[in-house]
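Sequence in, structure out. Go.
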Amino acid sequence: MYDRILLPTDMSPGVDRAIEHAIDAAERYDAALHVLYVVDADAYSSYPGDEYVHEFEGLEHALEEAGRDAVEAITATAADAGVDTVSEIRHGVPHEEILAYGDEADIDLTVVGSKNRAGEYRRLLGSVAERVARLSERPVTVVKTPVESS
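Output:
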């Protein structure tokens, strides 16, 4: 049923269960797991002026390295489970890059994580998870991870 499964990660606690779910699905369907990290362009380009050039270049590099580490950790876990992986680091608006990658790689299922907080803290899915689920023309599974409120 699924040959290519996409797992976007942002390294947040909300993706923990999604990782397990995506690897399990890839095992069950003998599918390749595509692990994607998007360096959020808004995170490092929101500062106007030349005085910030060195700072946001450093931030961009740090985000890319952190994303690469996260992708490598997930692909290592998947490899331990016998799952073939493809990894990708992109720069841009996260939900747009996730949707574009899904189209380009002909993804059959996207598995996104979302934090599920107790009480009234948050009733909606995270903005990226919500946008991917709403805008995708391909199947999307949202896996909620409980996160304790502080």
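Check: The mean pLDDT is 86. Strands lie at 4-9, 32-40, 85-92, 109-117, 140-147.
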